[in-house]
Design brief:
Strand content: 5-15%
Shape: globular
Number of strands: 12
CATH superfamily: Cytochrome P450
Largest sheet: 5 strands, mixed
Oligomer: single chain
Structural class: alpha+beta
CATH class: Mainly Alpha
Helix content: 40-55%
Strand order of the largest sheet: 1-2-8-5-3
CATH architecture: Orthogonal Bundle
Distance between the termini: 76 Å
CATH topology: Cytochrome p450
């Protein structure tokens, strides 16, 4: 009896805190907030890891309708979906919605990254990142990226009979980020950064219970290690800027952000904002690109059941890449103009993104009471939206389970805010063009130098991003007389 009383006295204040702001109005969306703290978080995470999250959400839709309430990661939440929901999320100004990630994401990435900033703060940081990642700037880095891919293939692919695609693509994309975005040389520091980064990523969508030996606790410790290392990089690059050793302020992202000045020649981005956004760019650039390329490898595999379905895709994609490879002197690096010719290959990548979007969904916070679709979303509540809900809508993409790159031949035919692997509107991911270049360069070298077959089933889970459960092992054969 005493134990029950003590537990009750502990839970009641927490429940009142979590439900603070709930209205008694019948216009609040239908659904249940579940038990305090836990809510529906474990149900969602289990469904994601079993690759049944979309089914779980469809069951909610069938039960409650197009908008419903639940509790995720310790906060009352409203789930919305569809084209109009996407537009609402991506176009609402900061007086309506604010960026608000889950507690675990905010603790790991920081509260001054783009996912959290609004208004002029958001614009200032986004402009600095965009200056480095815009197409005109990236043209200069195609050759460097090509060199990184060549080194990677020589080290990890050539002479091998079997490889695991996913861990190799994670290694490649991390090395590209370290070299191009942050100017971090190969060596012990980069290897330690990789270890910390992988540990941090595992706790991105976890229940924020900071007890020893929990996934969340391990991720927090890894994040602290990364922050200390990034602070050291900032000190080194600031010193070089002061000594005029860095002749090009845009030589890497950290230097570019340090070089951002206002009309009075004062730094416009704080050191914490640089650290938080460096970690954000590492996370976004590493996982999204590596997952896209991994699923491209899976879809282009010479495994019979896949090959029969996408024979035409293979023919066009391989022909396009081999034509470019055969037109170049052996060993010559790819150019921006050659990437522009890879139109069909990028359509294949877009269709891969439609079917396997790296980002499952996201969160916003209601800054005030919001009227939406006939219901009230109370101030302070989370809003949860999901990418796949429009990507697999057969009224938008006919036969959504069919792999068909021709969907993207005419981009105008796709309604706005329906294809959103990189977000939309003013919240469009600034790394979109970087990911496109990285993907095209990597696929060019793989399809012109190797053929491959799957060695395991293609089952994947979301944790929180889609990953083949066995790392996508493939058997590879190097093509003779490679000219690239």
């Amino acid at each position: 009896m005493n134990t029950l009383f003590i537990i009750s006295m502990f839970l009641v204040p927490i429940f009142l805190l979590l439900t603070k702001g709930r209205r008694s109005s019948k216009r609040v969306p239908p659904g249940s907030l579940g038990i305090p703290i836990i809510g529906h978080s474990l149900h969602l995470l289990r469904a994601m890891r079993a690759n049944t999250a979309e089914k779980w959400l469809q069951q909610r839709i069938q039960k409650y309708g197009p908008i419903s309430k639940l509790s995720l990661f310790g906060k009352p939440t409203v789930f919305i979906y569809g084209k109009d929901a996407n537009k609402f999320v991506f176009t609402s100004d900061t007086s309506t919605l604010s960026n608000s990630q889950t507690q675990s994401v905010r603790a790991l990435l920081g509260d001054r990254c783009l996912l959290e900033l609004s208004g002029q703060d958001h614009k200032g940081v986004r402009d600095a990142i965009g200056l480095f990642l815009n197409p005109e700037s990236l043209k200069r880095y195609v050759g460097k990226m090509d060199e990184e891919v060549r080194i990677h293939i020589e080290m990890h692919w050539q002479g091998k009979q079997e490889v695991k695609a996913l861990p190799l693509m994670k290694t490649l994309t991390f090395n590209i980020i370290c070299t191009l975005l942050f100017g971090i040389e190969r060596g012990a520091r980069r290897e330690k950064l990789v270890d910390w980064f992988q540990e941090m990523i595992e706790g991105m969508w976890s229940t924020p219970i900071n007890f020893p030996f929990t996934r969340y606790n391990r991720s927090l410790q890894a994040s602290a290690g990364i922050r200390k290392m990034v602070n050291d990089f900032i000190d080194e690059k600031r010193l070089k800027l002061a000594q005029k050793d860095a002749t090009n302020p845009q030589q890497d992202l950290i230097t570019c952000m340090l070089s951002a000045r206002d009309e009075n020649n004062r730094e416009v981005i704080t050191e914490k904002e640089i650290v938080d956004n460096v970690i954000l760019v590492m996370t976004a650039g590493h996982d999204t690109s590596s997952i896209l390329i991994t699923f491209l490898i899976q879809l282009l595999a010479n495994e019979p059941s896949v090959y029969a379905a996408i024979l035409k895709v293979l023919s066009f994609c391989f022909a396009e890449q081999e034509e470019i490879a055969n037109s170049k002197p052996k060993g010559e690096l790819l150019t921006w103009e050659e990437l522009a010719k890879m139109k069909y290959t990028w359509r294949v990548a877009q269709e891969t993104l439609r079917m396997f979007p790296p980002i499952f969904g996201g969160f916003r916070k209601a800054v005030k009471d919001i009227e939406y679709d006939g219901y009230l979303i109370p101030e302070g509540w989370q809003i949860f939206w999901v990418t796949n809900m429009t990507h697999t809508d057969n009224t938008i993409f006919p036969e959504p389970s069919k792999f068909d790159p021709s969907r993207f031949e005419n981009q105008v035919s796709i309604p706005p805010y329906c294809f959103i692997p990189f977000g939309g509107g003013p919240r469009m991911c600034p790394g979109y063009e970087f990911a496109r270049i990285e993907t095209l360069v990597t696929i060019h070298h793989l399809v012109t130098q190797f053929t491959w077959e799957l060695l395991a089933d293609n089952f994947f889970k979301r944790d929180p991003m889609p990953v083949p459960t066995k790392g996508l092992p493939i058997q590879i054969v190097q093509k003779p007389n490679v000219t690239s």
